[in-house]
Amino acid sequence: MSARPALRIGTRASALALWQARHVESLVRAQPDAPPVELVHIKTEGDVQSDVPLWQVQGKAFFTKEIDRALLAGTVDVAVHSLKDLATQIEPGLTLAATLPREDPRDALISRSGATLAALPPGARIGTSSLRRRAFLARARPDAVLVELRGNVPTRVERAKNGDYDAIILAAAGLKRLGLAEHISEYLGVGTWPPAVAQGVIGICARADDAATLRWLTPLDDRAARLAVSAERALLRMLEGGCQVPLGALATLDEEQLSLRFKICALDGSGGMNGGTSLGGHERGRRRLTVEDAIGLGERVARDLLARGAGDLVASVRATGAVDEP
Length: 326
Hints:
Layout: E1 7-11, H1 15-29, E2 37-41, H2 45-48, H3 65-73, E3 78-82, E4 94-99, E5 107-111, E6 125-127, H4 131-140, E7 145-147, H5 153-161, E8 167-171, H6 172-177, E9 186-188, E10 202-207, H7 211-217, H8 223-239, E11 247-254, E12 257-264, E13 273-280, H9 291-307, H10 310-318
Parallel strand pairs: 1-2, 1-3, 6-7, 6-8
Antiparallel strand pairs: 3-10, 4-10, 5-8, 5-9, 11-12, 12-13
Helix pairs in contact: 8-9
């Protein structure tokens, strides 16, 4: 009898990407009669242009599109992404097969001295390449000097501890997954500092017509994560900014109540809008909420923000050609 073909998982070669791919591999292997699994390393545009500030690079999906192209070409069978990196419009022919349970969605501050954001000295040098974090910093600490921060997560932490920066801001999820949470000086509260859309969620993509692969991925889907990111991604998609909007959003599911909080502002921290709303199962005939309900919630928030002038904020950011980082 011939050997079973391996399920090929496409991934970047960074420490965090490999952790995520190996985690998916372990979940697939844990299923009865699972196929062998092989990791395929793929270099993306974001990896190649590691010395260029991301807001100076045109386009989107720097850390995902090469992997998705390999998936469409049949070079790999599965793509594993940090879902916050994935464009809100998935490539035709692909599907988001599974969203894994969400890790801590918050942003985390790592400071050389252990100080919190508020306690950092005037003019502190803070490293980040995220437009959202830069905009929120401009609002919270207008005195801070914002410094470009590239490299993989362990490298960034090492540079902060070595004194290249007074502090850096990273996603708590990546730090926890890599066993680096001990370096965190402060978790930034989601009420005033909501995370990037889908932050903390691993997304698994496959070809939409590849039933043999989807068989192993569909059981991995987490309902709470799926509903949350469906609302958040619908909000971002309707604002038509993609990676280009300084938007923080976090949806949470409590029993059958889906709540969505958000914050958006200009790159200089001005013109901020923030708030939250929720959708309960009782509003849908006391039934379980669906993905369509979650998308509707996100779109409702987006329409409200656009009516309040968010379109002008989006246009002003887009005019700069700026892009966000993963």
